[in-house]
């Protein structure tokens, strides 16, 4: 599955860019995403958030273990 549509904010120059470096703001004004692509994007985003939260929990456990040593 292609994830070219996933973007992020580059805090250095405040430009929204896609994962592969495309400048999303450079897309034409009539650019459209299908409803299916939008739902896939939302689903993928929630999966990434869930994974990120799991990583944070693991790191917090690791910190607690290291603090006890």
Overall description:
Helices cover 49% and strands 12% of the residues. The chain has one helix spanning 35-68, and strands at 7-10, 15-18. It has a two-stranded antiparallel sheet. A hairpin with a 4-residue loop joins strand 1 (7-10) and strand 2.
Distance between the termini: 44 Å
- SSE run: EEH
Mean pLDDT: 77
Q: Taking Cα atoms only, what radius of gyration do you get, to the nearest Å?
A: 17 Å
Oligomer: single chain
Low-confidence stretches: 1-11, 13-18
Question: Strands across the major sheet, in which order?
Answer: 1-2
Number of domains: 2
Total helical segments: 1
The biggest sheet, with number of strands, parallel, antiparallel or mixed sense and barrel status, is: 2 strands, antiparallel
Please tally the β strands and state the result: 2
The secondary-structure class comes to mainly alpha
The helix content is 40-55%
Beta-strand content bin:
5-15%
General form: elongated
């Amino acid at each position: 599955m292609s994830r070219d549509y996933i973007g992020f904010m580059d805090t250095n120059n405040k430009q929204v860019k896609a994962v592969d470096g495309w400048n999303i703001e450079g897309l034409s004004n009539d650019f459209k995403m299908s409803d299916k692509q939008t739902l896939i994007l939302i689903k993928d985003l929630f999966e990434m958030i869930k994974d990120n939260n799991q990583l944070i929990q693991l790191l917090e456990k690791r910190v607690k273990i290291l603090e006890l040593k």
